[in-house]
Design a protein that fits this description.
- InterPro entries: Acyl_CoA_acyltransferase, GNAT_dom, Ribosomal_N-acetyltransferase.
- This protein is an alpha+beta fold.
- It has a single domain, classed as 3-Layer(aba) Sandwich (Aminopeptidase), CATH 3.40.630.
- Helices cover 32% and strands 31% of the residues.
- A nine-stranded mixed β-sheet has the order 7-8-6-5-4-3-2-1-9, with helices on both faces.
- Strand 1 and strand 2 form a beta hairpin.
- The longest helix has 17 residues.
- The two termini are 21 Å apart.
């Protein structure tokens, strides 16, 4: 099986409503269709790289290429696990977790997107909670970081709910204009205090060496 050669293909995270895992080619195509249908209101841009400004077909192709590129560039020192989020068996977005020298820093970062018609139902909180459980309980991390532009109220609300604290600002240029990018940090202690979503993890042990971590 392919997962014997690349164990993250066998990794599964499950919450009460969601499953997070790497997709089959057909599921990746369906995820691209979700992106083509819209991720945010046209007048806003929540991403540093404004990939959703592209025409729908180009944005969809970019989702496929980005997915392949991240897996192809994977090393134990610098890995990016872009899990597809499934709700009722269908892909609705992605939730990523990235580690750069994570075995040394004990820190990971996260990023995500959710199809616009799936927003507003608490799924963003649930999918972030899933990868935080993986980070802290599964990988033994000590901190997790993320960021969001000041007008991305939904993402900032998810971070507050999960226990993140402000960690400063970065100034970015998006669509030719300056924006404030709010950095946020979650410690293990704050994660423990705010965790409410039950999460199960399957298939993690064989993935650990690929993340630069000792085998269980």
């Amino acid at each position: 099986m392919l997962a014997d050669h690349f164990p993250p293909l066998g990794l599964r995270l499950r919450t009460p409503r969601l499953e997070l895992r790497l997709p089959s080619p057909e599921e990746l195509a369906a995820l691209a269709d979700v992106a083509a249908q819209g991720v945010h209101a046209p007048e806003t841009m929540p991403f540093v790289v404004p990939w959703t400004d592209a025409p729908p077909a180009e944005a969809a192709r970019g989702v496929v290429q980005h997915h392949w590129a991240q897996l192809g560039a994977w090393t134990p020192e610098d890995w990016s696990l872009d899990l597809v989020v499934f709700h009722d068996g269908a892909p609705i977005g992605t939730q990523g977790l990235r580690g750069r020298e994570a075995a040394v820093t004990r820190e990971v970062s996260s990023g995500s997107w959710l199809g616009r018609r799936h927003q507003g139902h608490g799924l963003g909180t649930e999918m972030r909670a899933a990868v935080l459980h993986l980070a802290f309980d599964g990988l033994g991390m000590e901190t997790a970081v993320t960021s969001a532009f000041e007008d991305n109220h939904a993402s900032l609300a998810v971070s507050r709910k999960l226990g993140y604290r402000p960690d400063g600002l970065n100034r970015r240029v998006v669509r030719g204009a300056p924006v404030n990018d709010h950095r946020l940090r979650l410690t293990r202690a704050d994660w423990e205090r705010h965790r409410t979503v039950p999460v199960t993890v399957e298939g993690l042990a064989p993935c650990l060496p690929l993340m630069g971590l000792p085998a269980a």
